Amino acid sequence: MGSDRAQGRRKDERIVIVGASLAGLRAAEALRRNGFAGQLTIVGDEPYAPYDRPPLSKQVLAGRLPVEHTSLALFEDVRARWILGVAATSLDVKQRRVALSNGETLPFDQLLITTGTRARPWPEEHGGKLDGVFLIRDRDDAQKLRARLERKPGRVLIAGGGFIGCEAAGVCRELGIDVTLIERGPTPLYGALGSSIGEIVARLQRQRGVDLRTNMTVAAFEGDEEGRLRRARLTDGSVMDVDVAIVALGALHNTEWLMDSGLTVDERGVVCDVYCRVLDAQGRPSPGIFTAGDVARWPQHLYEEDVIAVEHWGNAVDQAENAAHNMLSEMDDYRVYRHIPMFWSSQFGVNIKSVGLPNLGDEVMITQGSVERYRFVAVYGRKGRLIGAVSFDQGRWLDAYSALIDAGASYPPQLAAADQPEDMQSRQAGFPVATRHA
């Protein structure tokens, strides 16, 4: 049956993709490009065709890119039925049906789950519905926040020092807006890069005028009689007057509709094998059901102790194409998904890029460049193995580090770089223990 599908002869075959995302679109293109001639349906809970999310917290927020220009390019005529602005509500694996919020039920022969993540909201009982409290996850979020920043608020408070929060802080300073960044850990990017590298980020932010406050959180937002944000109450007991608050507390995986499906699913994502096949509750591949992108968790070859999710742009593209190939193949032609994670971020005029899995490192070492100039490369090690690398304005070196990581090179690496520090010392990476294996 797989070879028939690959050659396009199964025109009665029905594939449903739930998630009109980057992964969903690239999978649809790969299916058509590789010969699928059957019925293809793509479901998305937003009213928009797939668009690019990374620019929302950078170019869109800064006003350099209209939000309408974030739509993803189409490289293949997917010839699909698009159902947008409608969410999937449940999955019946035995009957091979997806139920939708509009009352429709979609039968399928094969299913691809690419529902991704959404921003973690601020609790309503602590001011989450006040006018002036924003998230940055979708087009509407970015457009509304951009309009508010154009009005030059007196002070913006950002709750959360991850990449989205740091990028938003950078945009605020670029626009000449006073900004306070609140982070529960000891440094910004504590969970992504660890406190050792996070200390460098903290110094950069303070030099660029950010009021950075660490080891605390926002207890509540408070408003006036008209429901407009006026104050933020912090856990150290202080109260700040703020006009705008940006909540950047990470993401929630869109898996609620799958909780009663009999698949291996929880709030951390959808578990699949190395072929992108979703596992059932007994850990067996569920026939004809695949997953890709931010919502997927799988055995990553760089870290075989657990299944992990990789919520990066490149992974969404690569995993979607891998899943599409396997959906059209016989089992003996399945491709194992091997991916070296890579992400990038632009903030305060510095381009930060990473490869591998830095957040699983025990140790970190500066191997090239100058920390003082914010132009350097650092590598991460775990149990004597090189597992990740990050660059600040030195991204051209990362392909070489990626090859070392993929080959399982030892840590610390033996380099002969002309710009390596005279005294290369390994330090504790400084990650939060509770999230090391999330």
What topology does this entry show?
Elements (H helix, E strand, L loop, with lengths): L1 H5 L7 E5 L3 H12 L5 E6 L14 H4 L18 E4 L3 E5 L4 E4 L4 E3 L2 E4 L3 E3 L13 E3 L3 H12 L4 E5 L3 H12 L3 E6 L6 H18 L3 E4 L3 E6 L5 E6 L4 E3 L2 E4 L3 E3 L11 E2 L2 E3 L5 E3 L5 E7 L4 E4 L7 E2 L4 H15 L14 E6 L2 E7 L6 E8 L4 E8 L2 E8 L5 H9 L19 E3 L10
Parallel strand pairs: 1-2, 1-7, 2-3, 7-21, 9-16, 10-11, 10-16, 11-12, 19-22
Antiparallel strand pairs: 4-5, 5-6, 8-17, 13-14, 14-15, 18-19, 20-21, 22-23, 24-25, 25-28, 26-27, 26-29, 27-28
Explain how this protein is built.
The structure is a single chain. With 438 residues, the chain is an alpha/beta fold. A six-stranded mixed sheet has the order 3-2-1-7-21-20, with helices on one face. A six-stranded antiparallel sheet has the order 24-25-28-27-26-29. The protein has three domains: 2-118 and 252-333, FAD/NAD(P)-binding domain; 121-249, FAD/NAD(P)-binding domain (3-Layer(bba) Sandwich); 349-435, 2-Layer Sandwich (Enolase-like, domain 1). α2 packs parallel to α7 (313-327). The protein is globular. The chain has eight helices and 29 strands. The model is unreliable at 1-9 (pLDDT under 50). The longest helix is centred in the middle third of the chain and has 18 residues, at 190-207. The protein has helices at residues 2-6, 22-33, 59-62, 139-150, 163-174, 190-207, 313-327, 398-406; strands spanning 14-18, 39-44, 81-84, 88-92, 97-100, 105-107, 110-113, 117-119, 133-135, 155-159, 178-183, 211-214, 218-223, 229-234, 239-241, 244-247, 251-253, 265-266, 269-271, 277-279, 285-291, 296-299, 307-308, 342-347, 350-356, 363-370, 375-382, 385-392, 426-428. Residues 343-422 form the Reductase C-terminal domain. This is Ferredoxin reductase. Residues 416-438 are annotated as: Disordered. Its cofactor is FAD. One of its GO terms (molecular function) is oxidoreductase activity, acting on NAD(P)H.
